Amino acid sequence: MAKERIVTRTATPGESAVEGAAATRAVRASDAYIAEIRPKRLQEYIGQKELVERLRIAITAAKKRGDAMEHVLLHGPPGLGKTTIAHVIAEEMGSRAFVTSGPALTKAGDLVGTLTKMHANDVLFIDEIHRLPAAVEEYIYPAMEDRRIDFTLDSGMHAKVVTLNLEPFTMIGATTRAGLLTNALRSRFGIAHHLEFYNEADLQRILQRATGILSMTGVDADALAAIACRSRGTPRIAIRLLRRVRDYAQVMGTGHCTAESVMKALALEGVDALGLDELDRKYLRVIAQTYGGGPVGLEAIAATLADDAATLEDAIEPYLLQLGFLARTRQGRCLTKSACEYLGVEFKSESLLGGS
Ligand code: ADP
Which candidate among 60, 150, 224, 239 keeps its CA 20 to 30 Å from the CA of 201? Predict the structure, then answer.
C-alpha cells in the first residue's frame, strides 16, 4: 500500500469513521503547525499572482459546470507552495486532498487503491511526480483523460481486463524537474505553471501572517524585513527562520524580536545577509578552490561534497542561479564575477567564456 496522507478538511457525508481515524493518525504531529500555517483559501494565498488568477478562473468555471477542476502541473524549487496549492484547491472545491508521492506509488495497485477511494471532485496530489514508476504512469493516462482504469487480473490465458470507472477528480502533480516528465504525462495536464521565487514584500506578508498563527507578539517590522531578505525567496525557509528567531528571542532576550536579534539568531544558524548557509558556501568554495571557478560538472561537485547531485540541483542551485552567482554552461557550472567577489577570490573570466 502506498504511503499516503489523507487530509480531510470537512467530513464528507459518505466518509467512514475508519477512514477518518486513519487520516488523523497519518498526519505526523510535527506537521501540525505546518497545517496551521498553510493558507486555506485562495484569497489567503500570498504571491504567485498569475497562478492564483489562473486557478481562480479554473475553479469558478469547474464549479459552474458542476465538474472537477482541470488537472494541474506545478513545477519549481521546493518550499514555494505546491502542496499548499493542492490543499487550497480541495478547500475551494469543497472536497478532500489525498497526498502521495511518485516514489511511494511503487505498484499500479497503490494508485488504483487511492483513485477508487476518491469521491467526486476530490484532489489527488502527487509530489515528485517525475519519480513515478513507468508501470504506474501507464495507468494514470486513462484515469486522467477518461476517468477509468483498465486493470489486468491474472496473466496468460486467464488474464482478464477489469475496467473501473472513477469519480471526476483533479490530479495535481508537483515536480522540481519538469524536464524529466514524459511528454505523454505533461500533455495531460490542463494547467501547467512554474512557481517563481517570492519577492521580499510577499515574504514579509507571509511572515506577518505566520507570527499571528504562532501567537508571536513584539515582532518589529524591520525584524520581519531582515528575515524576508534572508529567506532565499522561499516561504518554507522564511517560516523556519522565523521559528529560530522566536526561540532566540525567548531564550537570549526579552522575547521581543528586533532586526538585531534576527541577525544574531541567524548568524548562529550560519545564515548570512544574502540568506546563504554553510552548504551554499561549501558548494561555491568547491567550484572556486577545487575546480578553479569552473566549468565543472555537477557530478564532480557532488562527489567532492559527498552529497547527492539531485539535492544540489533542486535545493542549492536554483537560488544561486537567481542571485547571479552561478552560470550553467554546456561545459558545466561556472562561478560568476559576483560569486567570486562574495568569496573574495579572483575571477577568471576565461573560464566563463570557455562555456559560452
Ligand atoms: P512545496 O510543496 O512547494 O515544497 P509547501 O506547499 O509545503 O511547498 O509550502 C512550504 C511552507 O510554506 C508551508 O508551511 C506553507 O504554509 C508555506 N507557504 C507556501 N506558500 C505560501 C503562501 N503563498 N502564503 C503563505 N504561506 C505559504
Answer: 60
Total domain count for the chain? Answer: 3
**Model confidence over 287-300: pLDDT tens digits?**
999 999 999 999 99
Q: What is the DSSP string of 70-100?
A: PPEEEESSTTSSHHHHHHHHHHHHT--EEEE
Annotated active-site residue 82? The verdict is: yes
Strands in the chain per DSSP E: 5-7, 72-75, 97-101, 123-127, 148-153, 160-165, 170-175, 191-194, 326-329, 332-335
For ligand 1, is residue 100 a contact (CB within 6 Å)?
Answer: no
CATH number for the domain spanning 309: value is: 1.10.10.10
Are 223 and 188 in a shared domain?
no
Boundary-marking domain end, from 212, 240, 268 = 268
Same domain, 156 and 12: yes
Question: Is 176 annotated in the active site?
Answer: yes
CB of residue 115 inside a 6 A radius of ligand 1: no
pTM attached to this predicted model? 0.87
Domain end point (choices 194, 209, 229): 194
The answer on 206 and 134 residing in a single domain is no
- Same domain? For 127 and 9 the reply is yes
Domain span including residue 226: 200-268
**Contact call for residues 42 and 56 (beta carbons, < 8 A):** yes
pLDDT tens across 256-280, in order? 999 999 999 999 999 999 999 999 9
Please name the residue that has the C-alpha cell 504512469: 137
Q: What is the pLDDT of residues 167-213, one digit of tens each?
A: 999 999 999 999 999 999 999 999 999 999 999 999 999 999 999 99
- 273: in domain: no
Q: Give the chain's mean pLDDT.
A: 88
Give yes or no for residue 106 having a pLDDT over 50. yes
Distance 26 CA to ligand 1 centre (A): 20
Matching residue, cell 569552473: 294
